[in-house]
Write a structure and sequence with these properties.
By secondary structure, the protein is mainly β. The chain has four helices and 23 strands. It folds into three domains: 155 residues, Beta-galactosidase, Chain A, domain 5 (Distorted Sandwich), CATH 2.70.98; 79 residues, Immunoglobulin-like, CATH 2.60.40; 66 residues, no CATH class.
Length: 324
């Protein structure tokens, strides 16, 4: 199939091979001047509409999307947990992130989460030049069967021993592949780090001394790359203490003349204020003061041994009252 969008022609080919569906999307500049394609995306058929429980259990999936560059993949797992799952692996080109579009008040908010599109790297095409992406779709039964099939078809995938670490811990990130990889190297936040061969694959071990996110990137096979991101925190207990204090200081309604007095609300960090759930331009779904905020009160109530003190700069009610 061929499509035309301005000076760009898109050719789509599909074929079956050994029980898998192979798809290729090729973008060709058929004009006389250079063309740049930015944020080009391909819609994928992972149904993200949830009209009722029965439909979810029989014909909906949880789509786990990993936009890991040349090693991107998707696992579409039935919500019921029964039956075969759908796997997708990139075999040519790359997916750098994904996008959700089409979500609005007209689609009943949470019941229609939008349409998923996989976003390709920006493409600069000279006249007559082509670029694109190809991927393989296949069925599998158990989680590890997905990675076995991915590797059997020449794919690679990255796994971290832990994705959230405390300061001073050592991160261990492994690139898995059945095949030998050419010119393999790794970087941590852009700085080269050593890689060693193990029985599982190629591993990077790195002490985590700086707080924040660290990107472990593997480069292989002449320009291909993928990554894993790890987060370093001062300590799990200190992180929880900061969260509890944030809830106490900022997320409880303290206006006694408001019917939501005592309730925990969403907080808008951009405007530095409580996000009141009565604005006519937004949907109230997923932001009501009773339904999805109850965990805040539970967390505060079980926080018996905080690091420092759980303090409050505002007068708080002796109990929380929610509008359910």
């Amino acid at each position: 199939m061929r499509y035309r969008c301005g000076e760009v022609e898109v050719a789509v080919t599909r074929c079956l091979e050994a029980g898998s569906l192979l798809e290729t999307y090729t973008f060709t500049n058929v004009g006389r001047s250079d063309v740049t394609l930015s944020e080009a995306g391909i819609y994928t058929p992972f149904n993200d509409h949830y009209p009722d429980a029965q439909s979810c259990m029989t014909s909906r999936v949880n789509a786990h999307i990993w936009p890991g560059g040349h090693a991107a993949y998707v696992q579409a797992v039935p919500m019921s947990g029964r039956g075969l799952s759908l796997g997708m692996m990139v075999t040519g080109g790359a997916v750098v992130h994904y996008q959700i579009s089409g979500r609005s008040l007209a689609w009943s908010a949470s019941n229609m989460c939008g349409v998923i599109s996989l976003i390709l790297p920006d493409m600069h095409l000279k006249p007559g030049e082509s670029a694109g992406i190809s991927w393989r779709l296949f069925a599998y039964d158990k989680p590890q069967a997905f990675f076995r099939k991915l590797e059997a078809n020449g794919g690679v995938w990255v796994e971290a021993e832990k994705y959230v670490l405390e300061k001073g811990d050592t991160a261990r990130v492994t690139l898995h592949s059945r095949e030998s990889l050419e010119k393999l190297s790794a970087r941590k936040n852009g700085v080269p780090v050593p890689v060693r061969r193990t029985a599982e694959g190629w591993m990077v071990e790195s002490p985590m001394e700086e707080l924040g996110e660290a990107c472990f990137e593997f480069l292989y096979d002449g320009g291909k790359r993928t990554r894993a991101n790890c987060l370093t925190v001062s300590s799990a207990r200190e992180l929880l203490a900061k969260r509890v204090n944030f809830i106490i200081d900022r997320q409880q309604m303290t206006r006694r003349d408001d019917p939501r007095y005592g309730a925990y609300l969403v907080y808008d960090n951009e405007t530095d204020e409580l996000f009141l759930n009565d604005r006519p331009t937004v949907s109230p779904a997923d932001r009501d003061e009773g339904g999805e905020r109850l965990g805040m009160g539970v967390l505060k109530s079980i926080w018996t041994k905080p690091v420092g003190s759980c303090r409050s700069s505002k007068p708080l009610p002796r109990f929380s009252r929610t509008t359910t």
